[in-house]
Design goal:
Keywords: CBS domain. With 147 residues, this protein is α/β, with parallel strands linked by helices. It has helices at 3-6, 19-28, 49-56, 59-63, 65-69, 73-76, 88-91, 108-118, 137-144, and strands at residues 12-13, 33-37, 43-48, 101-102, 122-126, 131-136. The mean pLDDT is 90.
């Protein structure tokens, strides 16, 4: 089985897309992450949903989860308000990581190894300088477990 067999169309964002738009897209389409593209439409980075949360959740709550408990429910439910006016660029790690990109002929083991190594829930599939879509962790696991 190859990447081309697991490939699906996938939404993309630019670095300057409002990150709240990314959060909405993740929620509406039940996605594990998004592909951030450059000006040529090629993958620049993968934005996992957890990176959006990292930008939205106050640092003191990430450092000491007990502090999150002292925030009343009304305010806790509005933590995404912190994303207002911020861009996808700000949600990405400051140091670029290995970009999980493969060609359509990659095997499922190659894709799984790349996901594991890069801690990415998806791999962008590129052929001849054209983004074809992505293979998600869910699609990969569904296929290899026979579901």
């Amino acid at each position: 089985m190859r990447a081309r067999d697991l490939l699906s169309a996938f939404p993309t964002l630019s670095l300057d897309t409002p990150v709240i738009e990314a959060a909405r897209l993740l929620a509406e389409q039940d996605l594990p992450g998004l592909i951030v593209v450059d000006d040529r439409g090629l993958p620049f980075s993968i934005l996992p949903g957890t990176q959006v949360l990292r930008l939205a959740v106050p640092g003191y709550c990430q450092d000491d989860p007990a502090l999150a408990r002292v925030i009343d429910e009304q305010h806790a439910d509005r933590f995404l308000d912190a994303l207002a006016g911020r861009t996808v660029r700000e949600a990405l790690p400051p140091e670029p990581r290995e970009l999980p990109v493969a060609d359509p002929g990659a095997t499922v083991l190659e894709l799984a190894a790349m996901m594991a190594r890069t801690h990415s829930p998806l791999v962008a599939i590129v052929d001849e300088d054209r983004l074809l879509g992505a293979v998600t962790l869910q699609a990969l696991l569904d296929r290899v477990t026979g579901l």
